[in-house]
Amino acid sequence: xxxxxxxxxxxxxxxxxxxxxxxxxxxxxxxxxxxxxxxxxxxxxxxxxxxxxxxxxxxxxxxxxxxxxxxxxxxxxxxxxxxxxxxxxxxxxxxxxxxxxxxxxxxxxxxxxxxxxxxxxxxxxxxxxxxxxxxxxxxxxxxxxxxxxxxxxxxxxxxxxxxxxxxxxxxxxxxxxxxxxxxxxxxxxxxxxxxxxxxxxxxxxxxxxxxxxxxxxxxxxxxxxxxxxxxxxxxxxxxxxxxxxxxxxxxxxxxxxxxxxxxxxxxxxxxxxxxxxxxxxxxxxxxxxxxxxxxxxxxxxxxxxxxxxxxxxxxxxxxxxxxxxxxxxxxxxxxxxx
Amino acid sequence: xxxxxxxxxxxxxxxxxxxxxxxxxxxxxxxxxxxxxxxxxxxxxxxxxxxxxxxxxxxxxxxxxxxxxxxxxxxxxxxxxxxxxxxxxxxxxxxxxxxxxxxxxxxxxxxxxxxxxxxxxxxxxxxxxxxxxxxxxxxxxxxxxxxxxxxxxxxxxxxxxxxxxxxxxxxxxxxxxxxxxxxxxxxxxxxxxxxxxxxxxxxxxxxxxxxxxxxxxxxxxxxxxxxxxxxxxxxxxxxxxxxxxxxxxxxxxxxxxxxxxxxxxxxxxxxxxxxxxxxxxxxxxxxxxxxxxxxxxxxxxxxxxxxxxxxxxxxxxxxxxxxxxxxxxxxxxxxxxx
DNA sequence: TTGTAAGCGTTATCAA
DNA sequence: TTGATAACGCTTACAA
Lengths: 338, 338
Prior knowledge:
Rossmann fold; 3 domains; 6-stranded mixed sheet; alpha/beta; DNA-binding; 6-stranded parallel sheet; homodimer; 434 Repressor (Amino-terminal Domain); 42% helix; 338 residues
């Protein structure tokens, strides 16, 4: 019933052994310790309700069993599954996750990297969605913390691995499907095009057209942001430009929602008049009217694999690997295509 | 260019002062220190790229500037905004957040509370959605960590505050609005009814009917889970029971989506034949067809206020308050009601 | 204005 | 099979 937490020292005193002994027992490094003292110590620790102080422990072991997760915005439906995957894997291995929202703001990212290295996290999972050009991460360079990148590519010596998705192939599959279903004039409403992601998806779009001998026209492509408002506006713009089309391939599902909303307002029927394919497969896409055909990203798996990779790196300090995991997308066929 | 991180001791040596002096300067407790030594130390710390070791610091100060956030599932659209609000406030105050997903599993909760107290978090924000009865939290009792509850009520001496929503009033407002718009036979498709939340909402539903002299019938109320599948099934069940109705008040937005989907399949027009009101206002509710009229919960604010409250508690160790903050809901009128 | 030194709760190296 | 004891890097009385 003491007020201060019980320490190893007090247990040692009560059990009439040394702190070293107690420590070994509590950490299962007790091969050489007699069952008698072992049980005695364990009993006392239990009774006194001993809780180890990880600060003290980390100070000497130099590991915190904590990893940082930096992402733009947990409120964006793209990220919760990544976070969940990461947390699940971390939790399995008895690691904890500190999570940070940057709003795609470089200053914030710098700040968080600083904080995380001060907190001595063992590693960082870094999901930086929007491309911010080639800025160098000064905090990252100061820090020696190993980093696993999600979704984007950086050059940095702390980067020990990347987990990405084959975006080119993903959009190739989506667009090919549209063509296969008889659609011929396919708009591409992209997100922010500075993004490598968006570029890769554009490449996949082009390749699908090419392989099907459909001419690629710049007038059919517009890029904006990854928000549903942009999809809504984009359709408006295409209509104003008197562009005619029978399908829309969208940079993500949110954009697709906007596209569909606007088209409904114009009385365009989906999928009969126009087919729509999204990208991501966020959880509501199946509930929309019509349910959205989309290229699913394995978000949960990305988070999970990223942590898995990090733990591997942590356990093989020696070999300085920079592993790259490329995950496949999956076409989810629903009702927005015929 | 050394390999090990620079310590205060090395800086002290290089600056030819004591570690105490360096520590004071680095912590802005340097009222009494000459500008000369001050600048010298700061310069060296900058050049050598000093990063404080928070393990060591926390060991003596007994605070980690870290707080735990326990919630059922970040993947559930209800929670990301809470998490975001919490993180924003924490970040403002230079606190970090460790986040934990319990899947409404009591074992998990216990485990996380244990881990968090081992990690010596300064406090815990606890968002426990589904009611798990009156189970006692043994880990919580062992731990002395202050806890702020979100959304649910527990009795526990570690609970130093609660942030909740006035559910009774919320559903009262929603149902009153339906009545005001001329709807008369209003179903209530509730979530899990063991939940206090669901009970309070039921109470609000009844009060609205009563005040408008509409008889309450048990046959108009069904409870299931907070998932869209349940909304879908519920409508089916009501139809099978040959219950006629002209409005549906839903336990949350997800349920409303399911309800709407099923009704569309039956060719029921919304809002003309039947009006629908949801609860929560998750981010897609405005994008649905028709856009959903719903009782908005201030999720972001709940997270934000919870951390705010926790920080207050942390700064007033002396008075043993248990503050309760009750936030108001807001009726968001869109197109699923006439 | 600055330095000395104790101590935070562990782990880990030697010795015994 | 166990015990002393020196770290780990920092803060904080108290002295000087």
